[in-house]
Amino acid sequence: MKRLRSAALAGVIAAMGAFSTPVQAQDFYAGKTITMSTHGGVGGEYDAYLRLLQRFIGKYIPGNPSIQVINQVGAGGLLAINHAAKLAPQDGTHLVMAANGLLLFQAIGAPGLQESLGKFKWIGNFSAANGITVVRAETGIKSIEDARQRSYNIGSSGAGSISALLPMAHNALAGTKFKVVQGYEGAAKMNLAMRAGELDGRSGSTWPAFLTDFPEAKDGWLVPLSQAGEVRDSRLPNVPLLVEIVGDDPEKKAAARLVSLALNQNRSFAAPPGVPDDRVALLRTAFEKALVDPEFVAGANMHGLDITWRKGSDVEKTVREVLNQPKDVVDMTKKALTQ
Fold it and tell me: Does 200 share its domain with 305?
């Protein structure tokens, strides 16, 4: 009889152990606050995505945690991502929106990242829309060929940002003469500088974002020169891809494809490397549910935010692909972006 009771007790304990992990994950967020960080300044596009998500994701996370957004502006996104990797809690209460340029930044071996992006737990990304390079129409520039003739000021938030890397790629691979002016605290500050005539253009935002930031763009105030992506945006069918303006050199084309693939991970959202996988699974599910919430979609449309989202597992695959490119392609890309 004692043996039977012992066996039954062992069975109960085993069953409890089998269910303990998911129960803990389900209960973990009750009464807690999740901090979502962006390197973008208040009022910018990155900030707008997180402020919108803030309103919806909590209700899809078991325990209904509170959500807050912080702006960790600086160094083209390195400050925010390094904080998430090394200083932030690794328990799922701190999430970060990675700057678009950081994946390419790591791929070419640029210094500054304190942890590989391959170790982050990717929750998903908001948009797969192409990064567009635009100039003010009053500059007189109408095509990439014009941009090869003289210098134009393009604003940037810092060395690791898409706003710096994309025009640099144009210069090296397509022969343009963009002058990258760094130090702007996000898109909103760059937009003001464009309106003041201080900047000639910007690079890296989606076309819907530009239309929101500059309503007069519909009347020709902005000239889209190129787009970084794998296929042309259907809204800009006559604007060439980066890979289409680099000529026939196979090395330049390979580098342009790597740049486009890396920079097409628009507004990717991650948990730090140490977050347990069961909590990552909860966060991924909540992210996916929030992004198809009708009220979220309506809010995105109202603010001109492109929502062509991808799952965290898909972002993870792309990160691995970019970080495992052949050495000759990486070397060519690095040469193009650091010369």
Answer: no
Cα 11 to its chain centre, rounded Å, is 47
Using DSSP, state whether 225 is helix, strand or coil.
strand
Would you say how long the chain is, in residues? Answer: 339
Query: pLDDT band at 76, cuts 50/70/90?
Result: confident
Backbone angles phi, psi at 214, to 5 degrees: -130, 80
The one-letter code for the residue type at 101 is G
Instruction: Examine the fold and report which residue of 246, 262, 278 is the final residue of a domain before the chain moves on.
Output: 262
Which pLDDT tens digit goes with each residue over 25-66? 778 999 999 999 999 889 888 999 999 999 999 999 999 999
**Cα–Cα separations (whole angstroms), residue 79 to 54, 142, 145, 151:** 21, 36, 36, 30
CATH number of the domain at 201, please.
3.40.190.10
Share of the chain above pLDDT 90, in %: 72
Inside any domain, residue 182: yes
The mean predicted confidence, pLDDT, of the chain is 90
What would the two tokens of residue 174 be? 């397509």
Which domain covers residue 196, as residue numbers?
131-262
Q: CA 272 to CA 131: how far, in whole Å?
A: 25
Q: Which residues contact 63 (CB under 8 A, 6 or more apart)?
A: 26, 27, 28, 29, 30, 31, 32
Same domain, 224 and 144: yes
Running DSSP on this structure, what letter comes out for residue 308?
-
What percent of the chain stands above pLDDT 70?
Answer: 92
